[in-house]
Amino acid sequence: MSSVARAFRVIDRLARDGAMGVRAIAGTLDLPLGSTHRLLADLAGEHIIEQTPDGQWQLSYRLLEITDRQIDHVGFPRMARPWCDALARFSGETVNVNVLSSLSCVCIDKVRGNEAMQLDWRVGARGPLHCGGSAKAMLAFLTPADLALVMAAPLPAYNANTITDPAALAAEVDRIRARGYAIDAQEIVMGVFCVGVPILGRGGLPVGAISVSGTTPKAPGASLAPLVARLHEACHAVSQRLGYAGSWPPITDKVSAA
């Protein structure tokens, strides 16, 4: 295992479990004690980790600085935040901002509403594109080549509601394209419903999405229309600031790949 891989495993373990002693780190990751000492010293030298008063090791704030710069380059999370705040107040549910990354859906920001039960989709969490409101909203507007790649890959099931058949997913893509938004009816977490709208870049392709998730059932129709309208307002505004100049909602009659 390379030193880079070992260092990443140490960082990941400290992020998951909090402060740990050197022997605990070495034992948990099955690393030699001497190598662990050297890794920790190197990481501390770069201000990635630091020692607590009792001698344990924990992550410092350097990674937050790095992540903050990365989000600056992504651009739209800060543009979207005022819209997400308003969506959370309006819906009372969790609003997630997601980015398209290597044909995966990655959560990069979220705003909690005021309902007791909130979807705990962590910032940084990565998921597939064949299920979930934001994921499917991005999936439906991919290039034909990228869409075909997703369709040809395994489509794992999270529960009985997850779409795992390529033909059924192709039909779902056509529905999303026709109405301009995606719905997740308990496809990932039972009891959680979601509606998502894509954010499009200058070339008209998806770069991200905003979704609203909660326990309120969501289905196309009059009851969902006010929330969809606000999502479209938000995603259109952010898309325009990213250089998108096409029509909105991003409805298309293109036929999906089966």
Which characteristics define this entry?
6-stranded antiparallel sheet, 8 strands, Beta-Lactamase, two-stranded antiparallel sheet, Arc Repressor Mutant, subunit A, 2 domains
Question: What would your notes on this structure say?
Answer:
- The chain has 258 residues and is an alpha+beta fold.
- 43% of the residues lie in helices and 17% in strands.
- It has nine helices and eight strands.
- The strands form two sheets. A six-stranded antiparallel sheet has the order 5-4-3-8-7-6, sandwiched between helices. The protein has a two-stranded antiparallel ribbon with strand order 1-2.
- Helix 2 crosses helix 3 and helix 5 (76-91) packs antiparallel against helix 9 (225-241).
- The two termini are 40 Å apart.
Q: Topology, pairings included?
A:
Blueprint: H1 3-17, H2 22-29, H3 33-45, E1 49-51, E2 57-59, H4 62-74, H5 76-91, E3 94-101, E4 104-111, E5 126-127, H6 133-139, H7 144-152, H8 166-179, E6 182-185, E7 193-200, E8 206-214, H9 225-241
Antiparallel strand pairs: 1-2, 3-4, 3-8, 4-5, 6-7, 7-8
Helix pairs in contact: 2-3, 5-9
